[in-house]
């Protein structure tokens, strides 16, 4: 399984997934660090034809409610998968 960890600072933004040839399984961790849902759209997950399984994870330190930007990130990833 490929693991992609979103970093809070420069580097490892979701947009970097756009140019990678991913196959098999991918786990994207720490999605709470995504500050702009457009990065999720730019990742263009729908073009990853050899990607069979995608796992998304947020760390919330006990909070169960998704924040507004988290919902936008999830929607952007979902939309790209349905295209």
Would you give an account of this structure?
With about 80 residues, the chain is α/β, with parallel strands linked by helices. The protein has helices at about 35-40, 70-80, and strands at about 1-5, 25-30, 50-55. A three-stranded parallel β-sheet has the order 1-2-3, with no helix packed on it. The two termini are about 25 Å apart.
Which strand-content bin applies to the residues? 15-25%
Strands of the widest sheet, in order across it, are 1-2-3
Output the number of helix runs.
2
- Count the beta strands: 3
Evaluate the radius of gyration: 12 Å
First-to-last CA distance? 24 Å
Helix-strand category: alpha/beta
Largest β sheet strand count, sense and barrel closure: 3 strands, parallel
Provide the low-confidence segments as ranges: none
Write down the secondary-structure element order. Answer: EEHEH
Q: Helical amount among residues, as a percent range?
A: 25-40%
* Structural shape: globular
Query: Mean pLDDT, as a whole number?
Result: 83
How many distinct folded domains?
Answer: 1
Write the layout of secondary structure elements.
Layout: E1 2-5, E2 24-29, H1 37-42, E3 51-56, H2 68-82
Parallel strand pairs: 1-2, 2-3
């Amino acid at each position: 399984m490929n693991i992609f960890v979103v970093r809070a600072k420069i580097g490892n933004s979701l947009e970097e997934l756009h140019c990678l040839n991913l196959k098999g399984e991918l786990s994207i961790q720490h999605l709470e660090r995504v500050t702009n849902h457009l990065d999720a759209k730019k990742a263009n997950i729908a073009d990853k034809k050899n990607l069979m399984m995608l796992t998304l994870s947020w760390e919330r330190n006990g909070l169960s409610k998704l924040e507004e930007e988290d919902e936008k990130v999830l929607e952007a990833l979902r939309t790209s998968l349905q295209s």
